[in-house]
Design a protein that fits this description.
The complex is a heterodimer of chains A (about 280) and B (about 475). Chain A is an alpha/beta fold and about 280 residues long. Chain A has 2 domains: about 1-150, no CATH class; about 155-275, no CATH class. Helix content of chain A is about 40%, strand content about 15%. Chain A has helices at about 35-45, 80-90, 95-105, 110-125, 135-160, 180-190, 225-230, 240-250, 255-265; strands spanning about 1-5, 25-30, 55-60, 70-75, 160-165, 170-175, 195-200, 205-210, 215-220. A 5-stranded mixed beta sheet of chain A has the order 5-6-7-8-9, with helices on one face. In chain A, helix 5 packs across helix 6 (about 180-190). The longest helix of chain A has 23 residues, at about 135-160. With about 475 residues, chain B is of the alpha/beta class. Chain B folds into 2 domains: about 5-170 and about 205-255, no CATH class; about 345-475, no CATH class. Chain B is about 40% helix and about 10% strand. In chain B, the strands form 4 sheets. Chain B has a 6-stranded parallel beta sheet with strand order 4-6-7-8-9-10. A two-stranded parallel sheet of chain B has the order 1-5. In chain B, strands 2-3 form a two-stranded antiparallel sheet. The longest helix of chain B is centred in the middle third of the chain and has 22 residues, at about 190-210. Classes of the chains: A alpha/beta (about 280), B alpha/beta (about 475).
């Protein structure tokens, strides 16, 4: 854990006693992935079990610290993250863990802090915490988790593959939430004998599945990825057949673009075969 | 009838999806099936929508006819014998390739296969069977298959198809026997209800057999005592063609049906009573309502170009939800004196304002069944309320966050003895307020154009989705 030095604050050494509740507010800064977030939750729980004077923040590009808090950057440590996960599952419940995990996949910048406060409530209340929707900390994670679950469910249907000439199925998505880890198991079960990958162009990550094997997550930032996926020949007219079908299955006297937009908002259509020309 | 078999795949798809589009059902729900090695496909009980067509209806399955050739002359149908349209037919191989290639690319959740009656019901069912056998057997397809039972087909064929499909449906077509007689002279009530009954008993028998400790497939293959599912020919050949890697199951996702609304003069009460009877007596999973779209110029039918009765269809779906998930009965919502739905209010609001003696209910005490009857509270929010109030008193802002639609609910509830606002608990007043809220929406449902809405079961209906949906989502995303 490094301290981000800001002029006029702290001396760099971390003395945990007396911080948080009584002393200067502390902000943990962490990366955007669930592993980073649960690592930060681990550190924050170690510092304070009330949550007073402690907050979590996801690192952003133009990060602007204020002068009143002390900032601690949390480096990812898989061991701590999985320890935190186990603690949540054992001491609160599986349902709480699912909620917290999904909330950590949200796009909202406040998700790390929300997860931390939910976990603290969970340790106080125990198993039933997920029912306590009148508690703002619980409700917040409930809302985040619901959004992530809804979006990932939609991407099970809205993801489209193109079949490259070498038989590899390539799907491109641009989700708001980090749904890749939630949808990949579904496709691994459904298409076990295919080589496929799903590329999240917003996060530059891909889920890759070799035929007959398990899927894995890949960082595509520095691997010549864009060149690899560019200019592939694909699809032998099946996309055209699909567009034909979508056009002809609609009943004309019932045409209703507003309803179509409500159920399938425009931003989802960006990578969907039937809406591309 | 000239059937053009040499058309391109593209052209066939145009014709045979056009011919299939009036079927309302496109759900892929009701069965969970994991994927398996050396096969393609899986199924999710909650169903997955893959796209939405320009009419706002979900596209989940590749909905096509095997052929639009038909020996029947049902007056409402676009494929009737007397219509002059291009006739064509898919070869089983073509259906398989379309399904597999679409499925690989995640365009679809599975196949919805229906057909015009070519030659005879048995011959048609036989061809459907051939296509499915090829798809399940040689192509190893494990995705969802919804197939139409053709009225008049032999029980033996229905049983064979039932082992390959996930859902079967036999269309009731029209709500009453008289309607059927006048508009579909070649079909009869009994030719429709017989396969429906057979499928129901087949599903039921399978469940009973399961408690026997023996896998049902074994029983079905060997036991001649099963009356509704005739024993299949034994031998590896047949078994290999069933869903690969699975014990044989008969119509695991249950059966559904559909009725055409507005082609015949039935009242809403009659229609809803028929639906209720179907749910109770035939254990249907779903009854679909299809607003009649004028396609044929016929003296017995509404004129071509007349707007389909969309608001009516919408009200029927709302009421259908109330029957299935909210503990209502058809007789509570409508009766002989009031046989049609209120155009201004949805059925639940309508019921509530006529039963103000039961309201307001106290959110912190009322039981689950009572909460379900409050307009603006759905299955999910009622469950959340019941669970949350164990931890402490609930107030109006909490309810809002849980998904309760306070705009409607607040007339009917109290929190800690307090109402949201001071209002007169009086039928005319509340009905007026609720109708005002709904006016624009109702207008949009009924009228076309850019500014119009129609059936959306998810948020427009004031009702939640089936209660299984969320639970199922939990299990889906629970594979962490």
């Amino acid at each position: 854990m490094d301290e981000i030095r800001i002029s006029g604050t702290g001396n760099g050494s971390i003395d945990r006693r007396g911080e948080g509740a009584a002393g200067q507010p502390v902000t943990f800064v962490c990366g955007p992935e669930p592993a980073d977030i649960f690592c930060a939750v681990y550190e924050a729980c170690a510092l304070s079990i009330t949550g007073e004077g402690v907050s979590l923040k996801i690192e952003e590009e133009n990060f602007q610290p204020d002068f009143f808090s002390r900032y601690l950057r949390v480096e990812r440590d898989e061991r701590k993250a999985s320890l935190m996960a186990r603690r949540i599952r054992e001491r609160i419940s599986e349902e709480a863990w699912r909620g917290a995990y999904r909330a950590s996949l949200s796009w909202e910048p406040g998700r790390a802090d929300a997860v931390y406060r939910f976990v603290l409530r969970g340790f106080q209340i125990g198993t039933g915490v997920t029912d306590w929707l009148q508690d703002p900390n619980v409700c917040r994670v409930f809302e985040l988790s619901r959004k992530v679950a809804n979006e990932s469910h939609l991407f099970l249907g809205f993801t489209r593959f193109v079949s490259w000439d070498n038989g590899v199925l390539f799907g491109r998505i641009a989700p708001k939430c980090h749904v890749l880890a939630l949808i990949a198991p579904h496709f691994a079960g459904r298409l076990p004998g295919e080589n496929w990958m799903i590329y999240d162009e917003n996060r530059k990550k891909a889920a890759v599945h070799p035929a007959g094997g398990p899927w894995y997550m890949m960082d595509t930032v520095e691997s010549g990825w864009e060149e690899m996926i560019c200019g592939r020949k694909a699809d032998e007219g099946w996309d055209e057949l699909w567009r034909t079908f979508v056009k002809h299955i609609a009943i004309e006297p019932r045409t209703n673009p507003k309803l179509q937009r409500d159920l399938l908002p425009l931003w989802y259509r960006k990578n969907m075969t039937e809406f591309l020309q | 009838m000239l059937v053009e078999r040499e058309l391109s795949l593209q052209r066939k798809l145009e014709i045979l999806s056009d011919a299939a589009k009036y079927d309302a059902a496109c759900t892929s729900s009701g069965v969970d099936r994991q994927g398996a090695a050396h096969a393609m496909g899986s199924a999710a009980a909650c169903g997955i929508c893959h796209s939405f067509a320009a009419d706002g209806r979900c596209i989940s399955l590749l909905k096509i006819l095997m052929t639009n050739e038909c020996v029947y002359d049902c007056r409402y149908c676009v494929n009737r014998r007397s219509n002059d349209v291009v006739r064509t037919a898919f070869a089983p191989e073509e259906i398989c390739r379309l399904t597999m290639e679409f499925y690989r690319r995640n365009y679809i959740e599975g196949l919805f296969l229906s057909s015009g009656v070519a030659v005879s019901p048995d011959a048609t069912m036989e061809r459907i069977y051939e296509a499915l056998r090829l798809l399940r057997g040689r192509y190893g397809f494990r995705g969802y298959i919804h197939v139409k039972g053709i009225p008049g087909a032999s029980p033996e064929l229905i049983a064979r198809v039932g082992y390959l499909a996930d859902r079967m449906s036999v269309n009731l077509e029209l709500p009453t026997a008289q309607g059927l007689k006048s508009l579909a002279p070649h079909k009869s009530r009994s030719s429709i209800l017989t396969p429906m009954r057979q499928i129901q008993r087949g599903i039921c028998e399978e469940k009973l057999m399961l408690t026997d400790g023996r896998p049902f497939g074994e029983v079905a293959f060997q036991s001649p005592s099963i009356s509704f599912l005739p024993p299949l020919e034994t031998g590896e050949g047949v078994r290999r063609d069933l869903v690969r890697g699975e014990r044989p199951r008969f119509v695991p996702a249950g059966q559904s049906t559909q009725m055409i609304i507005g082609a015949t003069p039935e009242t809403d009460f009659q229609i809803l009573s028929v639906a209720e009877a179907l749910y109770r007596k035939f254990d249907l999973k779903r009854v679909f309502y299809s607003a009649y779209v004028g396609i044929n110029d016929d003296s017995l039918l509404p004129a071509v170009g007349k707007k389909p009765p969309l608001l009516r269809e919408h009200r029927l779906y709302q009421a259908d939800w109330l029957l299935r998930f909210y503990g209502f009965e058809a007789g509570e919502l409508l009766d002989e004196e009031r046989p049609n739905f209120n155009v201004l209010l949805d059925p639940k609001c309508d019921w509530a304002v006529r039963h103000l003696e039961r309201f307001p209910v106290e959110i912190n005490r009322a039981d689950y069944g009572t909460l379900l009857r409050v307009p603006g509270i759905g299955v999910k929010s009622a469950r959340r309320i019941v669970r949350a109030r164990r931890g402490g008193q609930l107030d109006f802002p909490d309810l809002k966050k849980m998904g309760v639609v306070l705009k409607r609910a607040h007339y009917f509830i109290t929190c800690g003895g307090r109402m949201y606002r001071r209002i007169r608990l009086e039928e005319g007043f509340i009905a007026g307020c609720l109708a005002d809220q709904n006016r624009t929406k109702n207008w949009r449902v009924e009228h076309g154009g850019e500014d119009y809405r129609q059936l959306s079961l998810f948020d427009d209906m004031h009702l939640d989705m089936a209660p299984t949906v969320e639970d199922c989502r939990f299990s889906l995303t629970g594979q962490l």
